[in-house]
Amino acid sequence: MPFHPDIAPMPSDIKNALAPNGVLRAAINMSNFLLVSERTADGGPAGVSPDMAAAIAQSLGLKIEYLPYPNPGALADRAGADEWDIALIGAEPQRAESIAFTSAYSEIEATYLIPAGSDIQRIEEVDVKGRRIVVAERTAYGLWLDRNIKNAELVPAKGMDASFDMFAAGGFDALAGLRARLMGDVENLPGKRLLEGRFMTVQQAIGVPKAKQIAAPWLETFVQAARKQGFVAELIEKFGVKGLSVASGM
Hints:
- The protein has about 250 residues and is an alpha/beta fold.
- It folds into 2 domains: about 10-105 and about 205-245, Periplasmic binding protein-like II (D-Maltodextrin-Binding Protein, domain 2); about 110-200, D-Maltodextrin-Binding Protein, domain 2, CATH 3.40.190.
- It is about 30% helix and about 30% strand.
- It has 8 helices and 12 strands.
- It has helices spanning about 10-20, 50-60, 70-75, 140-150, 160-170, 180-185, 215-230, 230-240, and strands at about 25-30, 40, 45, 65-70, 85-90, 100-115, 130-135, 155, 175-180, 195, 200-210, 245.
- Strands 1, 4, 5, 6, 7, 8, 9, 10, 11 and 12 form a 10-stranded mixed beta sheet that branches. A two-stranded antiparallel ribbon has the order 2-3.
- The chain is elongated and about 60 Å long.
- The protein starts with 11 loop residues before the first helix and ends with a strand.
- The model has no long low-confidence stretch (mean pLDDT about 95).
């Protein structure tokens, strides 16, 4: 769907710094099933984040090239390698060391899945000494837990599927994850339950490498317009994703 944001065009010198070859290289995190919910006929990414990237390219009068990465950690690792011009990824302080982020365009709740028979009733009861939390490493919510869990032990797994398998095997007190994903996981684990509330929300934003952060102010204006003019809400409706919300903004 075409989107025509009510914003000033990006100055030509900034556009040339962002995409000197006339092609906007958009890094896409393929492991986020809410933002990349479909595949094209040739196996490429389709969903809210690819469409956001395409709308940015269209507004700039540039061609679009999608660069898929298997997980957000692999994407963030290449911020200084001049492989991509913009990235659609969760904004986190650790990643901000090499990536300049806009405010969020969408957000995703993260919570815990609890085993049968557990006496844990509330989010704040998980971070207790002696308890073990399984978490997919280098995810936005995993990075948040790295900074904020003070007493429980975090047990990293290589991806969401691996974290589910570890938790299902037993011996853990909680599985951290995106609520939308855990709602499906709980159906495959009789007796397990989701905790109400959230321990954080993943803030999905547009990032640029620090070497190209001159483009960040224009991208911020674009994101604000996309939220306020209803474009993000239209994309969520278009792809029918549950568990993804329009970010409230700054």
